[in-house]
Amino acid sequence: MSAPTTNQKLLDWVAEVAEMTTPDQIVWCDGSKEEYDRLMAEMVASGMAIKLNEEKRPNSYAFNSDPSDVARVEGRTYIASVKEEDAGPTNNWIDPVELKATMRKLYKGCMKGRTMYVIPFSMGPIGSPIAKNAIELTDSPYVVVNMHIMARVSQDVLRLIEKEDDFIPCLHTVGAPLEEGQEDSRWPCAPIEDKYIAHFPEENLIWSYGSGYGGNALLGKKCLALRIASAAAKREGWMAEHMLILRFTNPEGKKFHVAAAFPSACGKTNLAMLQSTVPGWKVETIGDDIAWMKPGADGRLYAINPEAGFFGVAPFTSEETNPMALAACSKDAIFTNVVVTKDKDVWWEDMGYDCPDGGGTNWKNEAWLQSSGEKGAHPNSRFTAVAANCPCICPDWSDPAGVPIDIFVFGGKRTSTIPLVHEAFDFEQGVYMGATASSEPTAAALDLGNVSLRFDPFAMTPFIGYHAGDYMQHWFDMGEKLGDKAPKCFYVNWFQKDDGKFLWPGFGENSRVLKWMCDRVEGKVEARETPIGMMPLDGDITLDGLDIPAEDWEKLMKVDTEAYKATVNDARAYLAKFGDKLPAKMTEQLDKLEARLNA
Ligand code: GTP
Ligand code: SPV
Ligand code: MN
Q1: What is the whole-number distance in angstroms between the Cα of residue 229 and the centre of ligand 2?
Q2: pTM of the full structure
Q3: What is the spatial distance between Cα 478 and Cα 457, in angstroms, rounded to a whole number?
Q4: Could you confirm whether 329 is annotated as catalytic?
Q5: Is 417 in contact with 563 (CB distance < 8 Å)?
Q6: Which residues of the chain have pLDDT under 70?
Q7: Do 363 and 64 contact (CB within 8 A), yes or no?
Q8: How many angstroms separate the CA atoms of 137 and 27, rounded?
Q9: Domain 241-307+398-598, what architecture?
């Protein structure tokens, strides 16, 4: 196939990679439906994909990964900046020259027996001043079809690359060359010790080896839109954040835009698609995972969603918890590591009903019965859904200008200590809240080990492409730049438990908390001052129609001073590792909080 571009830089890079990786053929992708259907048909024929029941789930497919390749691998993820101190204490670092030498050895001949796909894609609306043009080279057809949904794949991107002579190169391989006559495995990948998810932030370059799953392989997402973009954003004065974006409209038609940062598997997709239970208030989704934000001409902060689809956690997605996500994947969807039922539909744990016929094929591609008590879907099983198929997608979701953010929300999964909601006194305390956010680990990363709690600044720990201390300083700097136009900051915790039960019903009911935030932005309600921030007065978050005993509400709203003091000590110990890169404003905030707790 002749290359459909005249850009020499791109042609040279493709030729150089092909020479190193020796694929059997090169296919230039165009993002068309014909291409999608052809690749799916090939994968169905090879046994990698399962075509789902056309009546129940039109145009949809299921995949089972290798049991060793089911989530991001943070221990194998590297920020290879030229200087080690620029990667900072939260990232793995290897000297870029050394890492490239190691990876070149692995890349040598790694696409033998396979096709190398050239995927031109844009993160953000094609041609938008905030968007980025990129090329992913991959030997995984699964990656190609997922990129079709998650990014904007089009030959129009090649025209922009020709015009600008610029693109972000993203190289990916599953790391499993095929010898002559060797039969392929259902989900080829490399052993964990050979996997590398490598970023070279000074060169805007991504090299990924050995995994075919999610953020390890769909390089537009975490690698480009967060790690590489966060480093570029620091240099260029904008923000790339692990945040959902939603629009909340009140009965009078006034629109509020909320960007919220929760760690992986802590509720972003759910909040982004929330079905409001507050009469007259409505949520529309703009993004569920990543926000790119720039100050606009009016001095406010404008956000776009750089993605075009949702790569969402399947388990627990039900009619009751997230009907909009279910609707989004009712057609044109890809499912990875869920149960395939006997009539070729999908099922997962806590989908709201038992598995039809009592079982099917589990995520390991084995016959499975629900009565076995074993989980049928992997806890990090995912759906890939077209954003435009979501019934509550915001009509302005792909407006290249973005939406002005009024409210930042931070949070994580904490079964104790952290109340349902509190508000920062000012933006600087908001930055402190975001920077000391903490969460209990989830299934979204493979190798976090046996930790009970981790600090996860702005839910970005695994995604900051540079020194986390400089990143915190960047937040303070953005606050100064935005001045009184900076969003108001809040901290939430939907996950407090008592006797193993959630105290707060969560999901749609979280709209009650969002409404309180909007009332605060408008100055409609007063709040009470506590050592940790401003909290709702009784009655300002209505509990009508909820069955929450008074003592539970008290627990949800309690500031446990002693537990908080312990948290401050933990935060100090955690922040100590930032050394002289810790912003002075962080220490100031710690001291102030401690003084308020001791008062
Ligand atoms: P990533 O895609 O990994 O970044 O995850 P995410 O932050 O989008 O998380 P998601 O919305 O998929 O939620 C993860 C898990 O949290 C699911 O099991 C949800 O059911 C659960 N969850 C989300 N919101 C709530 C809530 O308000 N209350 C409770 N109890 N659980 C929730
Ligand atoms: C996350 O882990 O935060 C995800 C899934 O959104 S992945 O794309 O695999 O990173
Ligand atoms: Mn995420």
Answers
A1: 16
A2: 0.97
A3: 16
A4: no
A5: yes
A6: 1, 444-451
A7: yes
A8: 10
A9: Alpha-Beta Complex (3.90)
